[in-house]
Specification:
3 copies of one chain form a homotrimer. Chain A is an alpha/beta fold. Chain A is built from 5 helices and 38 strands. Chains in contact: A-B, A-C, B-C.
């Protein structure tokens, strides 16, 4: 692919239009035929050391002695360039003869359904669905267009999904919530008969679990991205564009408003609300509400700047304690 | 269903016996034909705002202008009402033609075995087993009556399960323990040839992992409930009615005595014992034994009341430190 | 099996060569026909209480009135004895008629491929592969000899695996990394088209997730052992013989040098390097680099000895604070 054609496709400007690009790679692994990329000035040394034949750069990056494409949003342009130069694996349309599709299911045009996939009665899938081998859709799962479901995903009965939803391998949508109530000496099970409602452009990654509601709905807003091994408890509600990083857990009836980011291994207790655009840093936790627009850290979490000062002091506690006891030099 | 018939079935008293109920829903989502419920006085405002046609209430709840069922244990009564009004999905009895059942397996009456389920030689399942599509039972798995196994569950060789066990999608029972021993510069594998023994009325939720013992048994007592993504290490022993909330991890040879509750993301190190009826709050951890009957918090965990006082002080550390340095106003 | 033959096989010395061994068990569960073992003097009381017929012991263990095998490395000898006396379950070689193997896949000799396993085009497996039922290998997965893949494992396209790799049930190798970039108000997906490269003798346990790289490679060095529910983010690099205990998470582009041990529920932020032979204790976390050869604790983590002193002081903070306020007895 000529640099000029690529630049046009990703809305950038190139300086050597006839340079031939054969691949795209990270700076470290790129070779003379590859395009690579730098997102800012801190990539400068890596660019210098890279064998990449051409570079995708921000507009204000210093001049280089190699062919370049410059653009306003290099990360986004890079994502588009990858789609063109190394399109992700996608099985061909068609229905594998071993797929078990209930006659009462409706599948849109151009679907690809893999070996041993199971699609239950009452399911309705939009156009261009890709269902990899061994995915299981229980009865009455409805999805919009461009559903992409990887191997060993389970989507339980009654789930609703918008357009462009991606489920990575082993994700479980609609498992029973953890709902029990005392029954004499025992934990009596509260039937979990609500459902999960997932918006459009949501991605749920490997082995993450989104529990169905007890009676009503667990809802995941449009554009949410949920990383590996995340737990979303029953009746939780996520606003639009929430990021839940790996191994984060939401206990139940948890409300995460739009555009929040919860970093890895964060925990939020039941019935809490996290306000819009809040950021909670890794391994933090809260058992109370947190107002939006701020960054929080710690377990229990409080304001991030204050937490940094506390954590700077914490390792010094023993020496401070000794100084106090001795009444010595402060 | 008439309110009178429902009240009788769930052992409550109703005031408008002929009122017709068509569903059951949360206060927020209920409509005029729905029964909803309040578990105590803190639901009062939500009850007032709800469109629910009828309400299930504790006996001492204030009078309402709507039909009610009053009962001693409203949460338990609600669970029973859900079973009657919105019974959970359950596939019809029968064995799907694609299920791969070894001729040496014994399956009790009225079983439902789904598409592509695999049941190995020597397996014995009691009456009314429900095995959803794609569950895999390795050889020699024995279970009591009313086993309910969801899609993509794996139960490895030799596992024993009591009556009424429920396994949510993707749960793994009997995976190898994490057992290695130095072998020169390498980690030599210790074969994991023990098994998992699970009592009756145990529920293990989505993508949770219960490892087999090295030689003897990992045991899960009657009535234990294990949430999504929990890890139970090899040779652990859980007493009756233990609750392990989501993403909790038990390292190995861990002993959790009866009626303990470990909240979400708790960790317990190897060879520790947690005494009966202990409660460990979310994100806490311990590498030592904890006596029963108490509540613990922190990592490492100590008595909860003391932990609350420490945590109230922690964010103030920098200002206290500055005050001390200045010798100023305390 | 005669004690003499066993002793010879595991390179130990026995005192009653004709004693007949029928099994191997833990001290607590062993009977008169069983061999059991003690790894050191702290097992002395358990040995005395055990009904084991014979014992595997370190050379310097006190004399017993029972048949013994003494050896230099009892844990390693025990592992070998288990292999002989209770060999782990292994399905017979052969290809199940329901396995879906692409004609373009190459499978080495003596393979065992279970029911409904799916092996995509371009896959190449070495000798003696064991693929349990319902494992899914996407296209172009290459593995060395002695691959052991349990039920419901997913290995995505292009993964490379060395010799003797073991994957426990539900493990996911090669799921998309969590890579997004702002696209207007939305999170735009960065295609994840790199791969995972796994060395030899690696074991990845149940429901753990190893993400593929964005463009280049996520690499797992020879001899690494990865426990249940671990998350390894995209572009991470593990040196040889790293141990990642259960529920640990590596964010992305994380580098863990050789012979590190990360205990349970540890978290490492993106782009950090953990130096060789570092140990990070359970529930600790770091968002910075940590030099090798040391032990670290806390979140954020610092030197373990100092952390122990801080943690000993922490529960006493309220009383120290009160004493300071009162100006009283220190």
């Amino acid at each position: 692919m000529k640099l000029h054609d690529l630049a046009q496709a990703i809305e950038g400007d190139c300086d050597q239009p006839d340079f031939e690009i054969t691949g795209i790679q990270s700076l470290e692994h790129a070779g003379p035929g590859d395009l690579s990329f730098a997102l800012g000035l801190d990539y400068l040394e890596a660019v210098t050391n890279s064998r990449a034949g051409a570079l995708l750069l921000p507009r204000d990056f210093p001049a280089l002695d190699r062919p370049t494409i410059r653009c306003a949003q290099p990360a986004l342009a890079m994502a588009k360039a990858v789609e063109l130069l190394r399109p992700p694996y996608r099985p061909a349309p068609g229905i594998h003869p071993t797929a078990s599709i209930d006659p009462g299911a409706r599948i849109g045009p151009q679907a690809s359904i893999g070996a041993y996939a199971v699609i239950g009665p009452g399911c309705r899938l939009g156009a261009r669905a890709v269902i990899h081998p061994h995915a299981v859709l229980y009865p009455d799962v409805w999805a919009g267009d461009d559903l992409l479901v990887h191997a060993h995903v389970v989507i339980r009965e009654g789930t609703r999904l918008g357009d462009g939803v991606i489920l990575q391998p082993g994700a479980v949508v609609g498992g029973d919530g953890f709902g029990f109530t005392p029954d004499g000496d025992r934990h009596g099970k509260i039937p979990q008969v609500g459902r999960v409602v997932i918006g459009s452009r949501v991605e749920i990654q490997a082995n993450a679990c989104i529990d169905r509601a007890s009676l009503a709905e667990t809802t995941i807003g449009d554009g949410c991205k949920i990383d590996n091994l995340v737990h979303v408890g029953h009746n939780s509600r996520l606003g639009e564009n929430v990021l839940l990083c790996a191994q984060t857990g939401l206990a139940g009836s948890t409300r995460i408003e739009e555009n929040c980011t919860l970093a890895g291994q964060v925990g939020v207790a039941g019935h809490c609300t996290i306000g819009a655009r809040a950021i909670i840093t890794a391994q933090s936790g809260t058992h109370g509400d947190l107002p939006g627009g701020e960054m929080y850290s710690g377990s229990p979490a409080f304001e991030h700047g204050k937490w940094l000062r506390v954590m700077a002091l914490l390792p010094r506690l023993p020496e401070i304690y000794q100084a106090w006891r001795k009444g010595g030099n402060k």
